Amino acid sequence: MPRSDDLFSIGEVAKYQKISKQTLIFYDRIGLFRPAWVDPDNGYRYYSAKQLDELDAILIMKAIGFPLAEIRAHMQNYTIDSSLVALRRQLTVIDRQIRELGMLRSRVQHRCDQMEQARADRQAENAVTVGHTPAQYILCRPVASPRTLREISVATKQCFADSFAGQLPVFFQCGVIVPLENICAGRCTEASEAFLPIDPTDKADGLRLLPAGPCVSLCHVGDYLSIGRTYRKLLDYCDSHGLQIVSDSYEFCINDYITTRDESEYITKILFYIRPPEQPESPAP
Fold first, then answer.
1. Alpha-carbon torsion (33, 37, 40, 42), positive or negative
2. Helix axes 10-17, 49-64, angle to 10 degrees
3. What is the pLDDT, as a whole number, of residue 90?
4. Which of 36, 63, 152, 248 could bridge 48 with an S-S bond, Cβ 3.0-4.6 Å?
């Protein structure tokens, strides 16, 4: 048995390093940081003073972001050269994480901005907007027959699952495309495709560019099954103002199941491309 005044108990080491005894036990079990001596009578673990420096190195590497398996391999026989290689490699990992966090932050900010705007949109439920939509990309997935809300939900989940698996630059928003003929026939919830807005990327199939162009839009407030009343309002407005609809409907979920449990708070932005009066005919998007 080593001299007791040269050893620290597991409780003392945990206290000095501000970690739990369970962490030290786990490190022992995986072979990362083993005690200098274990009392054979009671199984108590004890550590030498020199080991406290080793534990410092382990905890610093963990704070930098090294996986425990890499730390264990590194600590077997590390030198200034091997440490420099490891740290430079980790810099590459950190730089990638910074880029990913930057994109993630922009997506969360975009969602927050949408939710702030949603409050104003609730008050402007009846306000039709005629304007110009900017170009944007969407990641599309077809909705299977019979194209009920169940199939729409499945297609939306596939969009999100594909984007997360491929680490695609999507926004945390979903939407659907509803053919104009379905809307005119009163089948306003019969969507043909689900989509997610996305930044341009060559890593995804099913990417589609929605071009910039003149549009008309109106926000539907309330549960999705009642969206027909908002479509009727929008179609009547276009008819009375001589606006010719030249596309299917693009529905963007502004406030939905992601941000509220209350379906009465749902806000769906309906957008059509249009040809204003006396404008030469152009191809539909």
1. negative
2. 40
3. 97
4. 36
